[in-house]
Amino acid sequence: MPITARLGFRVLDCFKDLLLCGYGDFDNDNHELGRTYVVCNQFTKQWMALPVAPAKEEGYEAPVSRLVCEPCISSNLDLGDGEPAYVYSEYRFRVVCIYQHKTSIKLDVFCSESGKWTNKARAFHGCRKLPDHNVISLNGELLWFYADAYFGTTLVALNIFPLDLTPTYIGEFYDKPRGDISVSQGALHIIALEGATIPTRVSIWRLEEGRESWKKQCEGLVETPGCNYEPEHLRVLDLASGEARNCLL
User: Fold this and answer.
1) What is the dihedral of CA 128, 133, 135, 138, to 10 degrees?
2) Where does the source fall among the domains of life (predicted)?
3) Residues 6+ apart with CB under 8 A from 127
4) Which residues are paired to 13 by β-bridges?
5) Tens digits of per-residue pLDDT, 162-212?
6) DSSP labels for 19-30?
7) What is the CA radius of gyration of the chain?
8) pTM over 0.90
9) What is the DSSP-derived secondary structure letter of residue 53?
10) What is the rounded distance in angstroms from the CA atom of residue 126 to the CA atom of residue 112?
């Protein structure tokens, strides 16, 4: 891959064996000219460079970039010889750049079938800043936490196959602490921290089938006695028992 040494090159997302990597191009005045993305397979050493993405518009935050694959995609996706046009139509994927400006969300979406970028925009009332670590893709959707006075804390889901900016609000989380979302065994989970004291109570919730409610899987305490963060003082949550135990990291 010819750009691995370029300053600012980052791994942005992954799906099975595939990595989404990228970097921004800037002029002498530090104005962004565009972003370059590469989808690569670290095991087969194959890679595909995408056409340069549109530059960030004035007023928008730096994008959160995600690789979204069709739910039925094979793990044996062949990326070809690095040419952007060399893709198999039966393996559809999207690279989605999410830009935010106040309450507006703009998506630049690369389509593997057409080999082109398109853009869509939508206003989300009361939308908070999207944290990079808390935006995930699952089964052809993009999901992130959303909070306002009307919906409480919930998850927003956007369907990327086909692209639809009509949001679905799933799994209301009114009476539970806000946390981070993740995927385990094909299901959405929330890791929630309750309070800012030591020890901190940690609870893990799983989104039930039907996507209308969350079920608590376990809870426990995580503490760092003395707040000195020495390894021998760290305690972690045992997910099987829901109890904290000593752990040398």
Assistant:
1) -160
2) Eukaryota
3) 100, 103, 105, 146, 148
4) 20
5) 877 777 777 665 555 567 788 887 788 887 776 666 667 788 888 887 777
6) EEEEEEEE-TT-
7) 20
8) no
9) B
10) 32
